[in-house]
Design a protein that fits this description.
single chain, about 475 residues, alpha+beta, 4-stranded antiparallel β-sheet, about 10% strand, elongated
Length: about 475
């Protein structure tokens, strides 16, 4: 009874420091401004699936498939279940262990030269409980809970990473489709130019070198069109892997070809279904709650802090309470009679007197592990801030660059038309046509590339800001010492 009273008195005590989230000095706002105006933006909303803001139903379907079948996500989900089970194992130590036994034996004994052969029968229950006086078990369960929450955040981070990678690969594939269509229309235009120079050469109004230049441009454009197939195929294979399918069993139809009369910029705007969304970045301090990798690092720091308490509890004695009861008889028919009843109650107090400094070393190890976890947490926060700033800056620069590039495309297309008219009128050489055509193609391809970079950077910014995730989804638990 004295032991039980002592255990109850000290049950609320837990050695080791109570966890406090590591503090960091964060800026009041991001250095870069944003978001910027876009043609037909969606809105990234934390209450919806972020990829839907891009307005592409094919992308939506692919990400749903990846969420269900991607093997990296499946692995992270299994690891989360492992962490949950480990947390339950640690928590189970808070409760008594109860067992049952039954046995029958036949034995020969020798007492003072007298041999005796006898049977014995036993049946009973036993229970034991380690009184968690110093909080070792509670701190261990605390660490288990924090590790499970860290694993939940890790699962969210893995899912977000797969979603972002898939979105980027898909958008790059669509941009590659735009580039292929640009070269397809370019090949058609260069074919007409070759026919024109050939006819003029046959009529004696053009040089053989004009035909050679026109053919060179055509073959070069055809080669670059074919080269784009390698890029598209690799992106298609990557998407197949991300949605858990073999590349041979997956394909994406190309974008519908633009009309021959469409300009490159108009065709891109009309046929690329995905559009740049508005991405609310919030405040730097909000990033701590919106990025799953930061939540993961913070929960690992909490687990490391709890492990300090586990290590320090080893300095104190352990109290184990035990009880057993049952029946023991030499005759099975008399097993459950009152004289066969047996029971016991006990308490054991154990303390390590000398261990060669092992407990001190374990405490130092736990403190160092906590310091490392805190450093990792702060580094993760800084890395997150950098990613947001990088992509805000990239989107700002690309927004302005795209405006100027659109003007350059229009000017280059006008110069190309004028040069062809002048060549047909015989006022310039075909070299002028070649030069303006090459300039126009370069500018149009640059415009398409810029569009792709904007889309990829916007996805990266969504990922950098957490993709609508919130730390509350990691199912945080209050510390055990407060329960």
């Amino acid at each position: 009874m004295t032991a039980l009273a002592l255990a109850a008195l000290l049950a609320g005590c837990a050695v080791g420091p109570d966890y406090v989230r590591p503090t960091m000095e964060l800026p009041q706002a991001y250095k870069e401004d944003g978001p910027w105006k876009v043609a037909a933006p969606g809105q990234v909303d934390g209450n919806q699936r972020w990829w839907e803001a891009y307005g592409d139903p094919i992308l939506n379907d692919l990400i749903v498939q990846a969420n269900a079948a991607n093997q990296n996500i499946q692995q992270a989900a299994a690891q989360y279940r492992q962490a949950q089970a480990a947390s339950q194992i640690a928590r189970a130590s808070l409760w008594p262990t109860v067992g049952a036994q039954a046995g029958a034996a036949r034995a020969q004994t020798n007492t003072n030269g007298t041999q005796r052969l006898a049977d014995s029968y036993t049946v009973g229950l036993n229970a034991s409980w380690e009184a968690d006086i110093w909080g070792r078990i509670r701190r261990g369960a605390e660490a288990g809970d924090a590790n499970a929450q860290a694993s939940a955040a890790s699962l969210a981070a893995a899912r977000l990473s797969i979603q972002a990678t898939l979105a980027q690969d898909y958008l790059q594939l669509r941009v590659t489709d735009l580039q292929k269509d640009l070269y397809r229309r370019t090949v058609e235009a260069y074919t007409r130019s070759l026919q024109l120079t050939t006819h003029q050469y046959e009529a004696g109004t053009a040089l053989r070198s004009d035909v050679a230049q026109a053919e060179t441009q055509l073959r070069s454009a055809q080669a670059q069109l074919i080269d784009l197939d390698a890029t598209r195929n690799q992106l298609e294979h990557a998407i197949a892997m991300l949605i858990g399918r073999a590349p041979a069993a997956f394909s994406l139809a190309p974008l519908q070809a633009a009309a021959a009369s469409d300009s490159a910029m108009d065709a891109n705007a009309q046929r690329l279904q995905a559009s740049l969304p508005q991405i609310p970045t919030g405040l730097p301090s909000e990033l701590l709650e919106r990025r799953p990798d930061i939540a993961n690092a913070e929960r690992l720091a909490a687990a490391a802090n709890a492990n300090i308490g586990v290590a320090r509890a080893a300095y104190f004695p352990t109290l184990t309470l035990s009880a057993s009861g049952g029946y023991n008889s030499l005759a099975f028919g008399q097993l459950f009679d009152t004289p066969s009843r047996v029971w016991s109650l006990g308490a054991a107090l154990a303390e390590t007197i000398f261990d060669g400094g092992a407990r001190g070393a374990r405490n130092d190890q736990a403190v160092a592990a906590y310091d490392a976890a805190v450093a990792q947490y702060k580094q993760t926060v800084l890395g997150g801030l950098q990613e947001v700033e990088d992509n805000l800056s990239t989107l700002r620069v690309l927004d302005r660059e795209s405006e100027l590039q659109a003007q350059a495309v229009k000017a280059a297309q006008l110069a190309e038309r004028l040069a062809m008219s002048q060549y047909q009128a015989g006022t310039v050489t075909y070299l002028s046509v070649v030069t303006t055509q090459a300039t126009s193609l370069t500018n149009q391809r640059t415009a398409v590339t810029l569009l792709g970079r904007q889309l990829v950077a916007s996805v990266t910014l969504v990922k950098a800001t957490g993709g609508g995730w919130h730390a509350g989804q990691a199912e945080p638990q209050p510390p055990l010492a407060a329960r």
